[in-house]
Automatic annotation (TrEMBL):
Protein name: Phosphomannomutase/phosphoglucomutase
Record's keyword terms, sorted: Coiled coil, Isomerase, Magnesium, Metal-binding, Phosphoprotein
Residue stretches spanning the membrane: none
GO MF term list: intramolecular phosphotransferase activity; metal ion binding
Domain Alpha-D-phosphohexomutase alpha/beta/alpha: residue ranges: 11-127, 158-257, 263-371
Organism domain of life: Bacteria
Ranges where the Alpha-D-phosphohexomutase C-terminal domain occurs: 376-453
Family according to the record: Belongs to the phosphohexose mutase family.
Biological-process GO terms, alphabetical: carbohydrate metabolic process
Pfam families per the UniProt record, alphabetical: PGM_PMM_I, PGM_PMM_II, PGM_PMM_III, PGM_PMM_IV
Signal sequence residues: none
Length: 458
């Protein structure tokens, strides 16, 4: 029997994640597969698609999970090597539940599982993970029916064909594209998806290697973009793309090697959707730039603001029938992709926009870069009580300069006499207080950051 504490240490708000051999092992994953199968069986499901990334431990753990699933009478389709968005494609097109073995951008010693229902619908703490935790704590009862079957299926070509139907790049002007796969799954999917298109790919770190020998597979950290920035300029590329480990996120740099903010990507993809589907609803989380709802409104769309996190975005996509959704962390969600996120699909939209006009990327994106942002700044605090106390202290410090406050996710403060705003919110998974600031100048943002962090870290 496992303790609840040991289980909740690895089953987080949105997924399962931990250090292999310390937090998780094959036996735990086998039991988790059985618990997930029980949950899916209770909802009338019969099949689970299982994919895995390039980490050394992923094949063994995915096979153990499959054994757990079949022990409860459900069938398994093993996909082998996949990106996370390819797993979502499988869940959507095969109309079955899914499990992706990856720890995304985490270091090599980590692994985990991203779970979804049929149609790539999310499984989170409030939508199934709590039930799985209860089952693991109580112990999985023996199943009295027949054991399920395991079959294998390769969907890479079908996934590539599907994406190319969604965004037609055949008629764009020729582009040179630098791609940093960070030794992750982008090195597996990009060559297939971009094959035969007017794109000259300059590959960087395409070798699949779960030890990440060149840099962490987390392009959200500026240090991990440095190689791509240099490589893009050296190769004379029109654009640079950086994928995280499981390739569900994509970051962009321009021809000068300068990062393009995920908010700007949200804005340009939203604009493309509104040209195709006038009046559509577009989702954005509350950390994206003010430029995003501005562009949506200017193009006749309806902007809907949500909390941070894929489960909230996906739920709101389904509720509103939104065409597209974007987050500041470079997760982009598409109605034609089962409301799921895909890094490469977002990249294809940017390539389509770039390749159907003559400006370089830096000029094309200039109209979407209207404000200055701090990026996400984290402060480690002792506990939830300390997080609450520091948040209240920040509100008190800005009380006489506050235009409005909302509490959709943490606190978002709009300031008087300026478009500047900031958000302070607690992490879902760590004892961190996260700060995001946006303003009209670098100086304004720097001064606000200094003042707010001075209160948080006092």
């Amino acid at each position: 029997m496992r303790t609840r504490e040991s289980i909740t240490a690895v089953i987080k708000a949105y997924d399962v994640r931990g250090v292999v051999g310390v937090d998780i092992d094959a036996d735990f994953i086998r039991e988790t597969g059985a618990a997930f199968a029980r949950l899916m069986h209770s909802e009338g499901e019969t099949t689970v698609a299982v994919g895995h990334d390039m980490r050394d431990t992923s094949p063994e753990l995915s096979r153990a999970f499959a054994e757990g699933v079949t022990s409860q009478g459900l069938d398994v389709v093993l996909l082998g090597l996949t990106s996370t968005d390819e797993l979502y494609f499988a869940s959507g097109t095969l109309e079955c539940a899914g499990a992706m073995f990856t720890a995304s951008h985490n270091p090599a010693e980590y692994n985990g599982i991203k779970l979804c229902r049929k149609g790539a619908r999310p499984v989170g703490q409030d939508s199934g993970l709590a039930t799985i935790i209860d089952d693991l704590e109580a112990g999985i009862p023996a199943f009295e029916g027949a054991t399920g079957t395991i079959t294998e299926k390769d969907l890479l070509q079908a996934y590539s064909d599907y994406l190319n139907e969604l965004v037609d790049l055949k008629g764009i002007r020729p582009l040179k594209v630098a791609v940093d796969a960070a030794n992750g799954m982008g090195g597996f999917t990009v060559p297939e998806v971009f094959k035969g298109l007017p794109l000259e790919i300059a590959p960087l770190y395409f070798e699949l290697d779960g030890s990440f020998p060149n840099h962490e597979a987390n392009p959200l950290e500026p240090a991990n973009l440095v190689d791509l920035q240099k490589f893009t300029v050296e190769t004379g590329s029109d654009i640079g793309l950086a994928f995280d480990g499981d390739a569900d996120r994509c970051f962009v740099v321009d021809e000068k090697g300068q990062p393009v903010s995920p908010s700007a990507i949200c804005a340009i993809v939203a604009q493309r959707y509104l040209q195709k589907l006038p009046g559509s609803t577009i989702i954005h989380n509350l950390i994206t730039s003010k430029a995003v709802p501005e562009v949506i409104a200017e193009n006749g769309g309806k902007a809907v603001r949500t909390r941070v996190g894929h489960s909230f975005i996906k739920a709101k996509m389904a509720e509103t029938g939104a065409a597209f959704g974007g987050e500041h962390s470079a997760h982009y969600y598409f109605t034609e992709f089962f409301n799921a996120d895909s890094g490469i699909l977002a990249a294809m939209h940017v390539l389509a926009a770039l390749g159907t006009q003559d400006k370089p990327l830096s000029e094309m994106m200039a109209e979407y870069n209207r404000y200055y942002a701090s990026g996400e700044l984290n402060s480690r605090l002792a506990n939830a009580e300390a997080q609450k106390e520091r948040t209240e202290a920040v509100l008190a410090a800005f009380a006489d300069r506050t235009e409005s406050v909302d509490t959709l996710d943490g606190v978002t403060v709009e300031l008087k006499g300026t478009p500047a705003w900031f958000n302070v919110r607690a992490s879902n998974t760590e004892p961190l207080l996260r700060l995001n600031v946006e303003g009209t100048s670098e100086q304004e943002v720097a001064e606000l950051v200094e003042e707010i962090l001075g209160v948080i870290r006092a």
